[in-house]
Amino acid sequence: MNSAITPNNKTSIRNKLRKISTINAAVILLLCWLLLTSTSLLFIKRYEKRNLELIATTLSTSLTAATVFEDSYDAHNKIALLGDQGMFASARLVTDENTVLVNWQDRQEPSGWYQDQLRRWIYVRPLSVPINHAENQVGTLTLAGTVNGAADFIRYSVLILSCGMVCVLVISFLISEFLHRGILVSLRNITSAIHYVIRTGDFSQRIPRNPTREFQLFSEDLNSLLSEMQTLKASLLRDNRSLAAKALEDPLTGLANRSAFIARLAQLLEQQHAPRGFVLLFLDGDRFKCINDSWGHAAGDEVLKAIAGRLLALTYPQDVVARLGGDEFAMLITSRTDQGELQQLIEDIHAAIAQPIHIAEEKPITTSVTIGYAWSQQGDSVASILERADMHMYKNKGIREERI
């Protein structure tokens, strides 16, 4: 069962690129190291064998007289002269009668596993060359090659190559970091834009142009998507505002509906500080049913629209005019601050509503309203002020009916 991958154990793309570059460079450099090391070893092997052959040929020529006369002293001196210079590790001079004239051994030749393996690899076996005189073999010279020079050469070559490869690996890593910077910047721009959109919900953010073709195509697609989302968000906001406005608006008259009226009333009560901050008016049509029965519902709707327009004409922007339903209207008046101004407004309302309402070519319609009001008081609730205004309106309606 696979364990879930959490953000803590995920690696970044920077680390991924570093890992890929490092592994790639390390593999290439390792192959180069193996190739150069192998070439160097083959070169030193060939060089040492060839050098030993030249030494043997030269030395065999100089030992001809000593071998013929079996002069071991002279032969030893000549062999020791070259051997002391590190030309070979050991030398053995034997006449054709198997008389050993010289058996020289370099006492300073290092011995160990590494040197023994290197010696067997380079020379395989000691080198034997004949010593000839007058076209006859008079003796045999056997030389065992030295590995002092080869061991030092191999040791320093491997060390230098290893140090060089490490330096190249470090330089390759730094160059990769520099070259990857453009990719990382491109990805950072893209992810920053996405995170900004997620964090703020603002779709106006755009990704800058990118010199890399694939990233540029991806940026263009993402910018197009952001533009579409921005347009969609703006459209949704407009629709929401429109729906919100319609939800608080009476569809026939365009006035505030009951919900908007109650919300504004509650807001005014919460903000009220003065004993008389505002006044609430209830308006109820007197003969609206008769108008519907006599002229039809279409005419009744036109009458309601006309009443709404006339009420709006008598108020200030800070006042609220609402249709509560049917022929019931309400007003929140904050522009009048005393009883005298209120009474003048009520008279103006009666006069405006009493004006004939002309509907097409029909006979002008006249109507009236009954008004009840209540001044706001400290400690008022929505229910209490509505109740006082309603009671005052029905009291006035009763008075008007008695007069009629």
Automatic annotation (TrEMBL):
<keyword id="KW-0614">Plasmid</keyword>
<keyword id="KW-1133">Transmembrane helix</keyword>
<dbReference type="GO" id="GO:0007165">
    <property type="term" value="P:signal transduction"/>
</dbReference>
<keyword id="KW-0472">Membrane</keyword>
<dbReference type="Pfam" id="PF17152">
    <property type="entry name" value="CHASE8"/>
</dbReference>
<feature type="domain" description="HAMP">
    <location>
        <begin position="181"/>
        <end position="234"/>
    </location>
</feature>
<feature type="transmembrane region" description="Helical">
    <location>
        <begin position="21"/>
        <end position="44"/>
    </location>
</feature>
<feature type="transmembrane region" description="Helical">
    <location>
        <begin position="153"/>
        <end position="175"/>
    </location>
</feature>
<dbReference type="InterPro" id="IPR043128">
    <property type="entry name" value="Rev_trsase/Diguanyl_cyclase"/>
</dbReference>
<dbReference type="InterPro" id="IPR029787">
    <property type="entry name" value="Nucleotide_cyclase"/>
</dbReference>
<dbReference type="GO" id="GO:0016020">
    <property type="term" value="C:membrane"/>
</dbReference>
<dbReference type="InterPro" id="IPR033417">
    <property type="entry name" value="CHASE8"/>
</dbReference>
<keyword id="KW-0812">Transmembrane</keyword>
<dbReference type="Pfam" id="PF00990">
    <property type="entry name" value="GGDEF"/>
</dbReference>
<feature type="domain" description="GGDEF">
    <location>
        <begin position="276"/>
        <end position="404"/>
    </location>
</feature>
<comment type="pathway">
    <text>Purine metabolism; 3',5'-cyclic di-GMP biosynthesis.</text>
</comment>
<protein>
    <recommendedName>
        <fullName>diguanylate cyclase</fullName>
        <ecNumber>2.7.7.65</ecNumber>
    </recommendedName>
</protein>
<dbReference type="InterPro" id="IPR000160">
    <property type="entry name" value="GGDEF_dom"/>
</dbReference>
<dbReference type="InterPro" id="IPR050469">
    <property type="entry name" value="Diguanylate_Cyclase"/>
</dbReference>
<dbReference type="GO" id="GO:0052621">
    <property type="term" value="F:diguanylate cyclase activity"/>
</dbReference>
<dbReference type="InterPro" id="IPR003660">
    <property type="entry name" value="HAMP_dom"/>
</dbReference>
